[in-house]
Amino acid sequence: MNPIKENLRDLRISSIAMLCLVCIFFGACSTDESVIPAASDLDKKSYEGLEDVFSNTDTIETKGKYMLLVFGANGCSYCENLKNDIKHNEVLRTYLKDNFSAYYINISYNKAHTFIIGEDKETKNYIIPTHKITEMYRIGPTPTLVLSAKDGRTITIYPSYLPPKQFMALLKFINEGLWEKANGNENKLRELLQSYLQNEV
């Protein structure tokens, strides 16, 4: 079966209201003693050399842009491939920096993250540990890409490594607003994205 079709089956859309409810529930559990302090540099080592692309995960917010969360792990060869693709492809690197608030979350560590959800004065803050974030987004394989709207609402989740051309096509699909044509319909979003990825690569 076509790997794009396989991965598109796992794509999900969720509303900001659902994310906020989940954040409130999990926020109450954020005092886990095994959580690494927010100031720890452990996760920064995971994206060394890409500090101009990925922001510190102490605070995760859209900053008025689309948001990309890359979930990776220690020992994940496809995660390393993805990071190397970004390092060595200046067009991809620049496109990410210009159009996305990007974060690399290493699920091998359990760190406290402050999520800022919403836009303008309508924002809310939630402190959530890494392991609860992985539950929220149902992270399985790594890398998994989570793309969100400018208000923090999840648009789609793509659980797979994508070669540079496909990765760029996915980013353009989001940044050019093509995902909005699905009008919140998950099946329609899959169809639109599948068609776009196939035509672009």
The coarse silhouette is globular
Q: Can you count the helices?
A: 7
Please summarize the sheet with the most strands.
4 strands, mixed
The radius of gyration computed from the alpha-carbon positions, rounded to a whole number of angstroms, is: 16 Å
How are helices and strands ordered from N to C?
HHEEHHEEEHEEHH
Measured as a percent range, the helix fraction is: 25-40%
Structural class: alpha/beta
Low-pLDDT regions: 1-5, 7-33
Return the average pLDDT rounded to an integer: 83
The percent range for strand residues is 15-25%
Can you count the beta strands? 7
Task: Tell me the distance between the termini.
Answer: 17 Å
Biggest β-sheet: strands ordered side by side in the sheet? 3-2-6-7
